[in-house]
């Protein structure tokens, strides 16, 4: 058994051509006859040769790899965005490198540093980028960046997203127009996008002179968290008449608890989620939620990044918006 991985000189030997002909067939095929290209490619496949793309990128200044960093892939929220990026890149002959930050700005910085070391051509990152060291890394390396899942007021480079602040304001207005006066916002803390949503929620309540001092409640992100918070909320005085959850999983957990306890939804209590995940449509009553174009965010971010790679002067700030989808829980 061969104790080293195949090299390009092994390909040349297997194809019966010189080293330089094999290299040209794989890297600059336009200067080599088609029959030779096919023979070299077949030889490479037969011996299991894989090109050293890092070395090749040092010559071409391109790796054809895009770095994508998202908080998590535990559910379809960010995985849909990654799929949108992947589908667009594959169609253009490029690849992606994915990292998970777990909502930790320090981990995000570490991933950016690692991806830069792998010579990626650009980044797609959830905005806003709040870690100054991460911003400095990206600026100093003069690399294209698309921030998504937000519309940062101080973007680093290009933006393809939507306004989390405006989304929360619209959701709160929606509940108020349904005659809800005691509304709570339930969310994890210390996450930039969640904090923007909380701010939009509180601003809207204040503008309507509705109670808002204790209207933001900290909980986890799971269905279990949504269930576990309900007994505590039902002991409040006065009782809430609407719950706006920063995610469908939490909202679905709360809804199943209410159904088990015989609480009338939406008569006594309205429930609203976020992200419009597939299960929101299928549970009964179906969950009112906010549709975010998760797949399109990834696709359009990839298109923007490729446009920049083709044209250094290209830039974009694209708002893909959101949609409130009313169903049976409001």
Describe the structure.
It is a single chain. A six-stranded parallel β-sheet has the order 2-1-3-4-5-11, with helices on both faces. It folds into three domains: 44 residues, no CATH class; 128 residues, Rossmann fold (3-Layer(aba) Sandwich); 128 residues, Response regulator (Rossmann fold, 3-Layer(aba) Sandwich), CATH 3.40.50.2300. It is α/β, with parallel strands linked by helices and 330 residues long. The chain has 13 helices and twelve strands. Helix 1 packs across helix 3 and helix 8 packs parallel to helix 9. The longest helix is centred in the C-terminal third of the chain and has 17 residues.
CATH level-1 class of the largest domain: Alpha Beta
Class of secondary structure makeup? alpha/beta
Number of helices: 13
Low-confidence stretches: none
Mean pLDDT: 92
| Helical residue percent band | 40-55%
CATH superfamily of the largest domain: Response regulator
* Number of separate domains: 3
* Alpha-carbon Rg, integer: 25 Å
CATH architecture call of the largest domain: 3-Layer(aba) Sandwich
- This entry's quaternary arrangement is single chain
Q: What order do the SSEs take from the amino end to the carboxyl end, as H and E?
A: HHHHEHEHEHEEHEHEHEHEHEHEE
What is the terminal separation in angstroms? 67 Å
Number of strands: 12
**CATH fold-level name of the largest domain:** Rossmann fold
Beta-strand content: 5-15%
Coarse morphology: elongated
Detail the topology: elements first, then pairings.
Blueprint: H1 8-15, H2 19-27, H3 34-47, H4 53-60, E1 65-70, H5 76-91, E2 95-100, H6 105-117, E3 122-126, H7 132-140, E4 145-148, E5 158-161, H8 164-177, E6 183-187, H9 192-207, E7 216-218, H10 223-233, E8 242-245, H11 248-261, E9 270-272, H12 278-282, E10 289-291, H13 294-310, E11 317-319, E12 323-325
Parallel strand pairs: 1-2, 1-3, 3-4, 4-5, 5-11, 6-7, 6-8, 8-9
Antiparallel strand pairs: 10-12
Helix pairs in contact: 1-2, 1-3, 2-3, 5-13, 6-7, 8-9, 10-11
């Amino acid at each position: 058994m061969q104790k080293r991985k195949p090299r390009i000189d092994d390909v040349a030997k297997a194809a019966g051509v010189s080293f330089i002909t094999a290299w040209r067939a794989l890297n600059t095929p336009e200067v080599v006859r088609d029959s030779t290209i096919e023979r070299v490619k077949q030889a490479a496949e037969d011996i299991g040769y894989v090109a050293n793309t890092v070395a090749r990128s040092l010559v071409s200044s391109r790796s054809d790899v895009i770095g994508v960093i998202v908080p998590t892939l535990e559910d379809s929220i960010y995985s849909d965005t990654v799929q949108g990026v992947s589908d667009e890149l594959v169609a253009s002959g490029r690849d992606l490198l994915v990292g998970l930050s777990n909502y930790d700005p320090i981990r995000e910085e570490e991933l950016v540093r690692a991806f830069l070391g792998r010579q990626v051509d650009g980044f797609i990152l959830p905005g806003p980028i709040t870690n100054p060291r991460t911003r400095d890394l990206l600026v100093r390396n003069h690399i294209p960046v698309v921030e998504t899942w937000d519309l940062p007021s101080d973007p680093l480079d290009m933006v393809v997203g939507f306004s989390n602040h405006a989304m929360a304001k619209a959701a709160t207005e929606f509940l108020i127009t349904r005659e809800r006066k005691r509304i709570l916002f339930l969310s994890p803390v210390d996450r930039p996008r969640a904090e923007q949503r909380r701010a939009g929620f509180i601003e809207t309540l204040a503008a309507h002179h509705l109670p808002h001092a204790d209207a933001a409640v900290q909980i986890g992100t799971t269905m279990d968290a949504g269930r576990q918070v309900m007994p505590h909320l039902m002991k409040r005085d006065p009782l809430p008449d609407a719950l706006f959850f920063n995610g469908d999983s939490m909202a679905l957990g709360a809804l199943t608890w209410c159904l088990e306890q015989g609480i009338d939804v939406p008569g006594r209590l309205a429930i609203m989620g976020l992200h419009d995940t597939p299960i929101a449509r299928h549970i009964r009553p179906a969950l009112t939620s906010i549709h975010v174009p998760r797949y399109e965010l990834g696709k359009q971010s990839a298109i923007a990044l490729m446009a920049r790679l083709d044209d250094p002067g290209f830039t974009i700030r694209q708002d893909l918006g959101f949609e409130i989808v009313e169903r049976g829980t409001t």
